[in-house]
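Tetratricopeptide repeat protein
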Amino acid sequence: MELTSLSLPPLSAGGEVITFYSYKGGTGRTMALSNIAVLLARQQNATAPVLMIDWDLEAPGLHHYFEQPQEHKPGVLEFFEACREQLLRRRTGPLTVDDDELAHDVLAAVGWEQYVTRVDQGSQLYLMRAGRFDDSYPDRLAAMQWEELFYSCPALFRCFAERLSRHFRYVLIDSRNGRSDSAGVCTTLMPRKLVLMFTPGRHSLDGLQELVSRATTYRRSHEDEQRPLLIYPLPSRIDMADCGERLQWRRGDASQQITGYQPGFEELIRDCYGMQHVSLESYFDEVQLQQTRSLAYGEQVAVRLDQGGDRFSMTRTFETFLSWLGPGYFPWQSSGEIQLLAKINEARCGLDDGGSAARAVSQPLARELNLLGELYRREGKLRPALSSFEESLSLRQRALGEDHPETLASKINLACALRQQGRLDEAQFLEECIVEARERVLGGEHPDTLAARANLAATLGQQGRLVEALALQDSVLDTYTRLVGPDHLQTLNAKAARAELLLQRGDIQLARSVQEQVLAAHKRLLGLEHPDTLRSKTALAHTLLQMQELDTARSLLDAVLQAYLRRLGPDHPETGKAREQLIDVQLQLGVPTDETPMVPELHQDAAMDDYGDALVRPTRRRGTLTANNAWSRTADEMVALDGALYGGRTPPR
């Protein structure tokens, strides 16, 4: 391997620095970094330059994963020794430059190229060793004062990261564990992304929260460090054979005083990023490093040996983790969302190429955008949902025309999103167009036409035009009753929608009577714990709250919660929502509860700008429910209502 200085051209777009950190040793951190580095270097036809930096100077080991005969090759320690000497020379004269200019002068004088070695002739994979392991290495390491070096030029490490990211698509740093000064440099000053490796256990998780809080606080509070820092928890050495213990450490077990790493990291992200709701459910469903011989014995790069990539392989595990880490998706984004986004990005590349390729991907792109909008709407992310639906509709209008079923499906979804955002006039206009098209093409009694009329009635009701809304909804209900009978599910859904309009008009007693009929029919037809039955119970409980029948409402909501606990488990979003609603009623009744939810303070600063909509969440006051302001419809409830109005069928795409 060459001993001369490297010569790498600058990238057209800057790369990024990723630090791998563990509070305790034994997590397989270096092994994971080496495997991730090999996979990243294989991307883009193996043309993406990737640099690994072994910054675990007290216990260097990254070079063992790659053939490295050059024991005397200089590395991290020698590089910063040279930086220290350059700073001493410059500090002896008058100070005429600011910190950034000084840092770049020093780094240019030292040059990183002679400290980096290529370690794979089949890809652009490079390594900066910990240092030259001669007899003087321990003494020289002990003499390196990282804090002193930082204060002599605070911009040095940040500018070092910037210079490397001009030439490497990814820079992966293997950090020292614990609370050392060098670990602080690697986790706080250098990276854009921070991979937190841990094994399920208190000793491994201890210290991670403090480190992340300190790093994110530093980034927010220092003017020159207003850069985002994304964290990616990575559980390691997971025993796949013991399901009970695996879930116990992931979810928590109060009887064993185990907090659970998933709720712990969800709370950490809420606190550090000022988010109100965070779920890592989908992320931790997919991202867990299983215990294998690759973790236990030797220094082998599993992805080089494990070429098959089946679902039991380490290759598949690392590739799954990379589907979040590589593109920069947030760990609170679901696997469904990132898969759709990947397909959309690929289709957009084809669209940019123009010609026949653009025509071929136009409608698949519209379909994926429509699916993404539906996913965002279910999650209550209305702004990105609206954007996805608008783009999907535009593509379908141009290619298919205004009256095509897929175009109308996009209009339906867009109108629903507009209604949820309170843009009622725009929603009304779209829904009137949909009704007119359905009537003209399908006739007045087609289920799709009736669903379109019901959606228009819901919008008219929110506009306060309740006489028109009820007249339209009554016609829908009468048609369903005549065509399919009074106990058909579509008829019951129409009755439930009518009850909502009655509530808006103030006919609470009549609305209650209709809801009781719907609930009784759902129990008889679907069973006590069917989702439609549970939604009917929740709707009736809302009405009873307005009537100040708190005990009865509490009984219904408790039944809903118990059903969700049995069927979905304690961590499902529907269970959490049912629990919160029950607690609200208990607070009104003065019933003690150990589960009163806390709402963290929401804040956002300049360092968080590229999180965009992901950090914008409306706050909700708790304990202020009165007879006249029973829960407003949440986004999920509105989606469920739209599904009911559509007759329980998914609109065509």
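thats it. Residues 355-378 form the longest helix (24 residues). The first strand starts at residue 16 and ends at 21. bye
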